[in-house]
Amino acid sequence: MKPIFVRGISNQFRLMLAVIMSVILLVANDRLEPVRNSLSSLLSPLQYVANIPGALLDLSAENLATRNMLAKQNKELMRHQLLMSERLQRFEHLRQENDRLRSLLGSPVHMDAKKMVAEVMEVASDPFHQYVVLNHGARSGVFVGQPVVDAQGVAGQVVQVSELTSRVLLLSDTSHGIPVRITRNDVRLMAVGTGVLDELEMRHVAKSTDVRVGDLLVSSGLGKRFPEGYPVARVMSVEKDDGQSYATVIAQPLAALDRIRYLLLLWPDIESDGKDLTPPEGIEEAVKASQEVAQ
């Protein structure tokens, strides 16, 4: 009859055996390095094979996410295209109505005037003047007094032209002034730079003038310098102090004067074929007069 409890190897012997094996492995570690490398090389294909399901799952999830993202973007773009198409239809109707009104009034239309995109090469480092240098000059037909706009509104006018470059005086410069009108009631004002990029001042505004915060100011076309109707600024504050003869009206330029990269040069009174690139008569005198008014 076999005993119920059989005594095996003692714990002390097991501990001694483990210690001896550990010492042997530590001593033979360097000698086992080639064997370890061989085993690693032998098992590498198996690791790649084992990783295939996970890689396929990740690739499928990425493709699915990309397709979903493209589907969402396509749906959003289609929605924007529809909205823009509807807006374009309304603008086309307004343009046609505007053309009819202009024909009745005998006012010229300059919608097809020549335009040119220019890149900013340099920004003024002089703290007393605010201007930028463009990569187009007299060789491209740029002339002194030429109006310049960005994607949001009027940015300034050309004040100096060389053969390949031109210098644009920004709206915010203290020597720059532009005649504007309020779109709400057609009140005409003079917007003058204050030396601060995001601030224009309306000079000599009577206290009785109907001007409100939020009014949109556009170029009035007076002086034949800037084409009529281009956005210039929006009124930010109106203060009427009893101790002052005129109201203090401050507006913010719509053009992003602090981050200009590209600007659009306009030829308001030049045919789009570009044959006549000479500036109008007396244009330099008009620029000086505009600066004197601003001062």
UniProtKB/TrEMBL annotation:
Gene3D superfamilies noted in UniProt: Rod shape-determining protein MreC, domain 1 (2.40.10.340), Rod shape-determining protein MreC, domain 2 (2.40.10.350)
Pfam family, one: MreC
InterPro entries: Cell/Rod_1, Cell/Rod_MreC_2, MreC, MreC_beta-barrel_core
Entry keyword annotation includes ATP-binding: no
Limits of the Rod shape-determining protein MreC beta-barrel core domain: 120-267
Keywords from the named record: Cell shape
Stretches the record annotates as Disordered: 276-295
NCBIfam families according to UniProt: mreC (TIGR00219)
Function: Involved in formation and maintenance of cell shape.
PANTHER family reported for this sequence: CELL SHAPE-DETERMINING PROTEIN MREC
Family listed: Belongs to the MreC family.
Name of protein: Cell shape-determining protein MreC
